[in-house]
Amino acid sequence: MTKEISRATCLEMDQADPLAARRDEFVLPENIIYLDGNSLGAMTHAVAANVERTMREEWAQGLIRSWNEANWITKAMKVGDTLAGLIGADDGEVVVCDSTSVNVYKQLAAALDMRPDRKVIVSEAGNFPTDLYMAQGLIAHLDRGHELRLVQPGDSVYDAIDEDVAVVMLTHVDFKSGLIHDMDAVTRAAHDAGALMLWDLCHTAGAMSVNLNAAGADLAIGCTYKYLNGGPGAPAFIFVAARLQDQIRQPLTGWMGHNAPFAFDIRFEPASGIERMLSGSHGILGLSAVETALEVWQDVDMNDIRTKSIALCELFIDLVETRCTGHGFELISPRDASVRGSQISFIHAHGFEIMQALIGAGVIGDYREPNVLRFGFTPLYVRFVDVWDAVDKLTTIMDGNVWQDPKYAIRGAVT
Amino acid sequence: MTKEISRATCLEMDQADPLAARRDEFVLPENIIYLDGNSLGAMTHAVAANVERTMREEWAQGLIRSWNEANWITKAMKVGDTLAGLIGADDGEVVVCDSTSVNVYKQLAAALDMRPDRKVIVSEAGNFPTDLYMAQGLIAHLDRGHELRLVQPGDSVYDAIDEDVAVVMLTHVDFKSGLIHDMDAVTRAAHDAGALMLWDLCHTAGAMSVNLNAAGADLAIGCTYKYLNGGPGAPAFIFVAARLQDQIRQPLTGWMGHNAPFAFDIRFEPASGIERMLSGSHGILGLSAVETALEVWQDVDMNDIRTKSIALCELFIDLVETRCTGHGFELISPRDASVRGSQISFIHAHGFEIMQALIGAGVIGDYREPNVLRFGFTPLYVRFVDVWDAVDKLTTIMDGNVWQDPKYAIRGAVT
Prior knowledge:
2 copies of one chain form a homodimer. By secondary structure, the first copy, chain A, is an alpha/beta fold. Chain A has 2 domains: about 5-30 and about 300-410, Aspartate Aminotransferase, domain 1; about 50-295, 3-Layer(aba) Sandwich (Aspartate Aminotransferase, domain 2), CATH 3.40.640.10.
């Protein structure tokens, strides 16, 4: 891309965009350019309407009967089946429940149980912290000499995988840089060493096509509130390859994972399929939101998603680098689009203040310590002209030293 | 109570009821008598309105900013503080998160960690199964020779508590019979033996006054979707006495339980207070529903709740026993109201069919295997005349053998 790009060019790109009409399905605030769908996705009109119906009809009118009559009892599996189609899984391999963190625990515990003679969990120092924290909590709890082996930035994941490794846990798309791991190759390396492979798809699901079964993945988890637009803190998902479902055991054995939850037996007997990964009762409001949020994907071609995602990201890099030259931004996302997710991250010594100033100007990205400005590009509702306008505002902020206003240096809790 | 009771008497009791106006705060279906608020509480008008606002304003318009600006990030603690007042806990001792099952796991794991030389968890064979299942999952996972010691029906809990016991886990109000444990006495017995005390308040919170701190309880959990009306599968709560919060460690160490979640340190460091019991991100829709559901309790005198609860239950027993004499119902709830929760259970050889016929007639109670008809009386919205009408319909069903219609014998998933 070159300097000849203009706002008019961007508008033309929007006109040619096969996904352009999808934006109408979302409720988006006026005068805001939202480049943070990788933290919290936007809401569709249908989600609000359906959650309201769930409350006013199913809950208030149906009351307890709705566990059967409105199929609440099977909703975690049904939504899982819908989601399975977006990540290359089959029916009966995915269930939607609990938080990503809790699901990491279940999967890691199950993996160690399946590899009792191995003591190492491999992950990356740059993985999203909660994944590492759950591994640490598990290891301390078991107290059986397990080790969390962290690949340091710049080092090779492959070098860390050996015969001591029980499970390799990686986030497919890095939350800071957007770097994509080679799912096929890493899974193969894990299997070659006799280890299990657990993929975290938080920044993948809904951002690009991915095929867990083609890669031979064993386990996966991910959240539904980023590119899947399930709502704040929406229930997460969990994938177990069908071939492992008979043998997998996870420790959070609540009644929803029981083979006959309403027989009220005293002894836990795991359900025969993916249901054994469930624990307690499903949060129906959150699950209803996810269920409806997934409807937007019904007629979407994931190739269109990926094509537009790459085009948005390339446009953003190009515009920042041409219009903000000399202002100290350093790209930390891969320049090669084929190994980059649907986000672009720059580092800058004053990243925090610059992001605050951008938010003040109506461009919402997010900031990650210690110095990362992160921008997510969600092809369902971000336009090319939004990219132009966002960089235009960034340029104004940098050229005019707007970010130096002391009010932008005030720190609160950031998300 | 005597045979002279009539429908007119019940209407008079409603007129004298100081809680009568509370019913107006709830959305209740026409022509239904709802005696299952102990499975799923009814919805208040305010809940639906606030969840809608949470979606349409906080999520759709505020987007990621709402984690700070709408205080999503502190909501689990804020709702916990509100709930604390209903269970005799202090600010900072309760947090609302995850499911009851997952919270049982955290608490039991934490208890075993605090009593490393003891190997026994005491509970009851009649406890709600998911509590037992979670204990079984924990024990199998740890694989360090722990034992789940179950008190059998008719045996004494006190006899099961000895110096080998790490933690006593009891449901304060039995889910089948409604029998209340003596919280002060059992807690004292656990402490005298050097054990920790974990109370499950699922059938207590909102049904009666209870005082965890006066009893010296260590740990508690409970759900918010029964008498607290938080909605289907609403997030549960967790209580840790302030004096234990510095030492408690639970294994599900997600980022929301970190001392500085947004510092993105690689190492988990637990938060200093009750926050360390959190794991992943809060489900905001479910949490908003609970937050608003609790508003109904603001001006409620828990003595009025208990007084009305007992009166409703006494009326129900009296009417069933006088009007359905000879039909084979056997009361399994305590006759002594002082040791009985806000529910009445009868067993009957044809309990399933009778409950189906009752539901067909617009009276919703629930059925618990193998033969229990369970009726919950929620003082906020159940009227005395509802009790009359429910028993009137039951009498018709029994006198006319309506329950023998084959359609009432069909079994599905029951809740």
